[in-house]
Structure formats: C-alpha cells, structure tokens
Request: fold
Amino acid sequence: MRPVFLRVALGILAITIATQVAGQAPASPRKSAAIAKTAPASRGAPFGPRDLDGIWTNVTLTPLQRPPELTGKATLTEAEAADYERKTRVSVDSDRRAANAQADLSLAYNDVFFDRGTRLARVQGTIRTSLIVDPPDGKIPPLTAEAQKRNAARPRNSFDSVKDRPLGERCLLGFNSTDAPMLPVFYNNNFQIVQSPTTIMILVEMIHDVRFIHMDRSQHLPTTFRQWLGDSIGHWEGNTLVIDTTNFTDQTRFAGSGENLHVIERLTRVAPDTILYRFTIDDPTTFTRQWSAEYPFLAARGPIYEYACHEGNYAIAGVLAGARAKEKAEEMPKQEGK
Amino acid sequence: MMPRLVTIGVMVILLSAVLPATGQAPGAIPRTPAGKPNLSGIWQAMNTANWDLQGHAARQGLALELGAIGAEPGGIGVVEGGEIPYLPAAAAMRKQNFEHRLTEDPEVKCYLPGVPRATYMPYPFQIFQNDKSLAMAYEYDSAFRNIYLKDPGPPPIDSWMGQSVGRWQGDTLVVDVTGLNDQTWFDRAGDFHSDALHVVERYTLSSPNVIDYEATIEDPKTFSRPWKIRMPLYRHVEKNAQLVEFKCVEFVEDLLYGKYSKKPSQ
Reply:
C-alpha cells in the first residue's frame, strides 16, 4: 500500500503546485516545455513561443519609407543589398571629412555616437527597402485635409523658449517615435522586455522610458486620461503579443498625428534570436488610410547602460543661450547706429 | 499497521508543506514556478524617509505660497540607531546641503534618484520578476534598474542608478549596488554620499503584501562606518493599481532653462 499512498500524496503535491502556478499567473505566457527542449540553443537560454524576455535591438539600415531611387522595388537580392549596404555605410559615416567647413560642422558627432546598423531589414527571407509594407509603395499615406490644417496651425519650431523646442531635444520622447510605435532611430535602438503575469514591461533605451503593457484589462483608461506614451493594453493572439495603444497627449506628433493616434503592435517570437515586429497606424483624423510596417527585433548581447538624457542635457541650454546671444549681436549695430 | 501509519504521516507532512503554497493559508507568500519568493507587483513605502532619513519634527516648507501643502511632515526616522555616522567634513557639508536644499536637491531638477532613494520616494514602483529576469521600474522619472542575476563584472562607468546584481540568500533577495555617481542625495534634507558609495539591499517578503526592506550604506569617504536603513514596503492591493507617468522633465524645464527664454519685446 505504501508506495500507492506516497504516489497519491506526490500527485496532490504536483497538482497543488500546478494550481498554484496557474492561480497566480492566469495571464502568464504558457511556456511550452516541448518547444523549449527542441529549440535551437544558438542564443543560450531556451524559449517558449510566448517568451519575449530579453534584450533586443531593432537597428536597421532600412528606412521607414522607401527611398525615391528604389521606387517600385520592395525587396533587393543579396547582391543588390550588399551594394546598397556598403554605399549607405559610407554616406552616413560621421567620421568622414566633408568638402567644406560648414558641411564638416554638421558632422559634429563622432560615428561612435550613432547606432544606424550595417544591414537592411530581413523578414521571412526577403530583404526590405522600406519598413512600411502597407501601402505597397512603402510610403506614409497622404494626410487628411483636417490633419494638414491642424499641422499648419501648429507653432513652428522656434528658439524663444524651451517649450518651443522639439520633444527629443527636451529629453521628453525619442526622435520620431521610439515608444509606440518603436522605430529605429539614430542611436539607442535597444529594448529590454520582462514579462510578469499582469504586466509586460519594455524598457526603451532612448530616454529610459518604460512601457507598461497591461495584460490584466481589456479596456483603455478613460479618454480624459492621457499620457506621453499613451495607454497600452495587451493580449495574446496565438503566440503573438498584440499591444493596443491610445490616449496619447495632443503633443504627440508622430508623422503628423495627434492625440487620436492609435497604434496596434504585434510581436511574435519567430526564432531564438528574432522577434517579428509589426505595427499598424490607425488614425482616420490624420491619415487617408491605415498603414503598417514590419521589421525584426534581433537578440542583442547587452547590457543596456543608463541613458541619462535630461541629466546631461547641456544642448538645450546651449541652443537657447546661443539664440539669445545671436539676438544681442544683431541688436548691437542698431544701437550703435542711433 | 506501522507502514500505513508512516505513510499517513508522510502524507500529512507533505500536505502541510503544500497547503501554505496554495495561497489558502494566511501569510503564505507568492512564489515563482521555480520556488523563489515572487516580488512581482506594485510597491510603495509609507513614511517620510524621502523628506529626511533621520528622525525629524514637521517644519515650515520652503515655498511660502504652498502653505500647509508645502510644509514638511515629520517622522521618527528609518536609520538604525537614529543617526547617520558622518565624518566631520561631511557633517558640515550635509548642513550646507540642508540650507540650500531648495536649489540643490537633485529631485527639484527631476534628476534620477539613485539607490536607495528610488525605493522610498513618494511614488510607487513595480517589480517585474520571472525565473529568468528581475527588473524594477519606478514611477518617478521612469527610473529603471535591471537586476542582473549573473554578475556582469565591475560597472564600466558610474551612473545615476548604478549597477545592481541580485542573488537569493534563502528567501531574501540581496542586491549589491555599485557604480553609483556622486550626484544623487538620499533625501530632501541634504543627506548625501560620494562616488565611493556601495549599497547592499535586502528584500524579504514577510507576508504576501509586505516587503521587509533593508539597505546597508557604505562610503568611507563620507561615513565613519557602514549604516543601515530599514522600512516596510507595502503592496498596492487595489484591483486597478498601476504605475502612471511622472515625466517630470516637463515640470522643471522653465525652472532650469527659463533664464534662457526670449524676453517679451516691449
């Protein structure tokens, strides 16, 4: 009898542990032991299909919109890509010397500062010439009349006060968009994802923003509650994490959009070293149609160091003080002439 | 009968070991699938340590217009033994910091808070933990710490939040923090440190909703001996608890850069 009892007891133990895990983590990604075992271990730790944990980079030479010289050409062959990559690496090299002093000055940052990548984006065996895959021309669709009017009424960048400077310069948000959607930009293209049962966090190296993806609710916050990064809720569709983000502030200006920006992101672990990332922009008040982009997030070695943007923001004081000094210099001859 | 009794005895032992883990027994702490205490959740200190780590009576605030809103609440302090053991020169510096706290406290400028200050600022923070990763995200200024579970070696450069390496000592998470710069303060009262700061934090779930938090602070350039702070951290148990944004850069830009603004033309 004894072995039977013992087995029953151990059975209860096992069930209890299973229940405990399931009970504590109702929304947690269910890791498949089978897949974890058979997955190629090229990046060390085994992963399950819903496992996005780790450090990732979305760096790529492929631009958001297809360059004019590649009109009508959505993909390149390996040979074409090698040629394009070589030429682009040379043209963006900040360590080259420019022909004249003025142009040379615009290369003020050393190349080590930048993280533009060395390769075009490769997705499912194709080499992409734009991150945008829809519409098929690889371009952001035309703005609605309403958006054109809205953008024309927005104050131009001026040097009058800090509030007139772009958000990136003020260390409030990354250039273009680095949160939702997460676009590759000049540098800091690294992300760390940590999954917990109720919330998935994404550390965005740029600005050290932390995105909170709420897995424990299916409704957005009231539209009166707006944040710089918006409000992100997530759910799993099969093995794809779908993140829906709304509730942006009216200062969010990604690609000419505003507070009605609605971003749908899809993250799928397609290989040990790759998350396939796809985002769709849905804002009928800004764009004449929806549009989508697709590119890989590749496993990065890390670690990600702290980007203390605001703490080291000597630029903004310099930019504004420079503008005041210029005004003073322009004022001098007038006074002398009086 | 004996074997059967032994079996029943084994079962009882097994069941009693199992029951607390089901969450039915009061006081059982949540655990990860691998059995480590699961610190995941939203936490916050409930004390006046960010005003002053040492015991302090309530005092007049620094912004007259804010009246009672800006007054500084008192507290009995969180320093073990009551006093921070400053070296003489550092004690003088602390006094000076206190007098100039309105302009010199890095929090006024929305700078990253450092460790341990991030823990007891008057904002919640969230711990993300699974069996592979551990990270802490703070509402204040979206400060962030990855807790390395494998030591990456000495930090290559000092930073505001330093480098944190975690290990489990029984059911206690011990975090060793190095690579901290000398720009942060411990509180709004001017308590400070040098770049020789070394902090060892201990996080122990004493019950499902309370972390017993301890930090040992060592800095031979500033203090005559290591000293310790200790406080409970409470879990936000409200169903809709979440961190919201506190991107304070927006709130300090005019304070920091207003002097460079164009004056209105006459």
Notes: The longest strand of chain B covers residues 198-207. Chain B touches chain A through 59 residues (CB under 8 Å). Residues 39-60+76-238+248-259 of chain B form one domain. Strands of chain B lie at 41-45, 125-129, 134-138, 144-148, 163-169, 172-178, 198-207, 210-218, 227-235.
